[in-house]
Every structure is written in C-alpha cells, then in structure tokens.
Amino acid sequence: MRCVFAGTPEVALPSLNALAASGHELVGVVTRPDAPSGRGRRLVASPVAQRAEELGVPVLKPDHPRDPGFQEQLRALAPEVCPVVAYGALLPQSALDIPEHGWVNLHFSLLPAYRGAAPVQRAIWEGEEITGATTFRIVKELDAGPTFGLMTQMVHPDDTAGSLLAKLAEGGAGLLVATLDGIAEGALVAREQPTDGISYAAKITPEDARITWSQPAAGIERQIRACTPAPGAWTLLDGERFKVGPVQLTEEELAPGTLEVRKSEVLVGTGSVAVRLGLVRPFGKKEMAAADWSRGARVGSGVRFGA
After folding, report:
1. 156-195: buried (b, 16+ CB within 10 Å) or exposed (e) per residue?
2. Distance (Å, rounded) from C-alpha 107 to C-alpha 129?
3. Angle at Cα 12 formed by Cα 7 and Cα 14, nearest 5°?
4. What is the Cα 150 distance to its own chain's centre?
5. Residue 170: helix, strand or coil by DSSP?
6. Nearest 5 degrees, angle CA 40-CA 41-CA 42?
7. With contact defined as beta carbons under 8 Å apart, do 167 and 153 qualify?
8. How far apart are alpha carbons 64 and 5 in whole angstroms?
C-alpha cells in the first residue's frame, strides 16, 4: 500500500525503519515542526524528520494537521493508509478521511487500558506485570478506535519507562507492519474495543515526579522507574532540586526522607522500609553514583530530603 507515516520522537524510528524496509511504498512522512533545543535554543528537526531525509522521503511539518495547505499536500501524495507512532497532535476528521484505510496508530498499551499520553509510565507506576502494544484505527475520540492486533510484553522489576518503551517500540514495529499487511490482503478486520477495562494515562508532569518520602517504599520505587528518564524523579535538598534514579528496597527502617550514609551506599527512609539510592543528580551537576556524591559533597547521616 502507499503509506504516509506520521511520527515525531525517537521511539517512532523502529516503525519508520520497518515500514521503509517492508513491501509497502513509503511516499511521505508527517512530523511536528522543528523545535528549539540545547542552550542556544537552535531549531532542530525531529528524529523522524531527520531519518526521513536520510531515506529520501518527502517530509511534511504542518503547524496543525487541520491546515488546509497540509491536507492538500497529503491528498497529492495519495496515501492508501497512514501509519502513526507518537505523532503528537490530534487529527481532525477532515484529515482522517483522506486515506482509504484511515490512520492506523501503534499505541503502547493493551487497549482499552491506559489510553492517553503516558501509557508506559503509568503501567510501571501502577505495578503492572504485563503490558503491550495495540494497533487501531484512529477515530476522533482519544485512543478509542477499533483494534487490529496486539503484542504483549513482560514488565521486569528493573524496567524504567525508557527501557520498557524501547522494547515496545521494537516489538511494535513488527506489529504495525503486520497490521498493514493484513489490511492490504483484506484478511484483517478491526474489532470495537470492549467497554470494560477502560483507563486513562495522563501525561506525567514534573510536579508529579516529586517524591513524597512518607509514602511506602514500593510505591516510591515504581514512581522513580516510571519517571526515568523523563521527567526524572526528584526531591529537595537544601532548597534545590535533587534528581534520583532507580532505587532498591532494603529491610532496614529509617525516618522518611532521612539519609544514612555508609562507606559504599546511601540509604533513605520512607513510610515503610528504607531504599538504597542508585544514581543521583544534584542540582547543576552531572549524574553520579550516590556513594560518590556523598563523599564528594561530604554529606553525613541524618541529613533529610524534602525539606
């Protein structure tokens, strides 16, 4: 089929590469406009735009997909289907109606669970042991369209949002291409999503990522993994933000937020058992091991986070 792929961040690249290597004809790419990046705030093309240019594929960067000029360009490309991975903008019905087989989205949850912007992060935060990815036809309602196929993925105890998303992006790329194959052959029929089990995964804000040390350790441990690498879990130390990477639960007890500094490890108290800090990032500094930070900053036991 003639395809116009829509996507923006790095997580969309496995699907773009799989589509380019498939038997389908990639005739264009839609992505978000260039955005400021780095200290100089220089405009930088999205990872999908950069890869599309390497592939020699026309790139469309509309401010919004409702723009008449963009829709005219899309019609000129005559796509039969538009596969989508993390494009980053809502699609109006006038755009959805252009390709004969619609827009087929790869979403990183087992729909109808975790519809929305942060399905992987919320699945980790909620302690799910199994998650996955689903392909579905986009409709106006959020992630509510009929589904074509799914893949499942175990959530390992040490998975962060970054590592789990990478696995789903790689596995989901094959699912997306297989879905397009099935549509082209007329062998795949979309099924309406069940009405039971619907949940929503709202975007995680920096304020959501602040650690409340009086909460039980297991919940804090999941929160930190869900917020890694972005936006990054954090606490306060001497009034400055102090970022915290994944931690390990111990069997010891300390007052919530209180540090115990040892020769080769740093523990922090929670509402249940203490946790062992892994990598930390003090304000204005690079990421480092907690033990190295405590030695360099000459932090002693009894110091408290969150004050």
Report:
1. eeebbbebbbbbbbebbbebbbbbbeebeeeebebeebee
2. 18
3. 140
4. 17
5. helix
6. 90
7. yes
8. 16
For residue 235, the cross-strand partners are 242
Q: Residues 113, 114, 117, CA angle at the centre, nearest 5°?
A: 155
CB atoms within 10 A of CB 92: 14
- pLDDT, averaged per 10 consecutive residues of the chain (307 residues), comes to 98 98 98 90 95 98 96 98 96 97 98 97 98 97 97 98 98 98 95 96 96 97 97 95 97 96 96 98 95 92 87
Q: How far apart are CA 16 and CA 6, in angstroms?
A: 9
Separation between Cα atoms, residue 262 and residue 120, nearest integer Å: 35
What's at 292, amino acid-wise? D
Structure pTM?
0.94
